[in-house]
Amino acid sequence: MEVDAVIEMFQRSEALHGLKYANYIGDGDSKTFKGILDAKPYENFEVSKKECIDHVQKRMGTRLRNLRKKTKNLGGKGKLTMKLIDQLTIYYGLAIRRNSNSLENMRNEIWATLFHKMSTDENPQHEKCSESWCEWKKAQATGSLDSFHHKPALSNEVFEAIRPIYEDLSRDELLNRCLGGYTQNSNESFNSTVWHLAPKNYSSGKKILQIASDIAVCNFNDGLINVLRIMKVMVMNIGPQSYNFYLETDAARIQRADRSLTDAAKEARSSIKASRKENEEEFSNLEGQLYGAGIAD
């Protein structure tokens, strides 16, 4: 169903909008893109596939977590902790975003983030690091390396374990599809607005879904003012309370959006997430001690 819908969108783009879609931004599902290629919506023009860089970043986290589960003694203090996995995943995503116009720079920074975590005072490995984010590089630029000390480094055991994952997720074929820094954020934001009006856990017919989609478009583009316009078309009375509610709700939404984009808010979200991961790991370790095989022998 999703494949058919996307194919139809491509096939009608020239008739409706007078343009051709050059790229399909995917999330790892190859069926939809294959359907587009097979349908050949444009006679002499081939559609290219681009990756949603948010989904590519998630692959790193998923692969590292799966490796940690499958490999004995890889997790735990000083090894591949959940906090470290989150850090490596974020660094990987940032390397792609910061270098979305250069495949070579993208690949170099991906590896730079890994060697950055392996660095020690005796063996700093910051050759490919950028001064914009590397504290060692900043200290070197200001001549203060004598007072700089590295945090505990990634062990060689962990490095050798995760190296194949980095090799796979930094191959040219994948990174080439990340050029441009495309995401599906706009689509997902719109979809969440639709599902808020017509939740997935309730059965809704086609008409209800169409109405929810129309209202979502109105809210997404212009805010609740369009709801008042819909009420006016339906000959409904719009009192001062309705108007004030629209003003206050839209103002609050804009304020929340602005606040969520601040560096302080981003750092707070990262800190909360890291803290939660640490607690989960502590509970997991404790549970392992309490419920391990043969613990009562």
From TrEMBL:
InterPro entries named in the record: Mutator_transp_dom
Domain annotation Mutator-like transposase: ranges: 1-134
Name recorded for this polypeptide: Uncharacterized protein LOC106750107
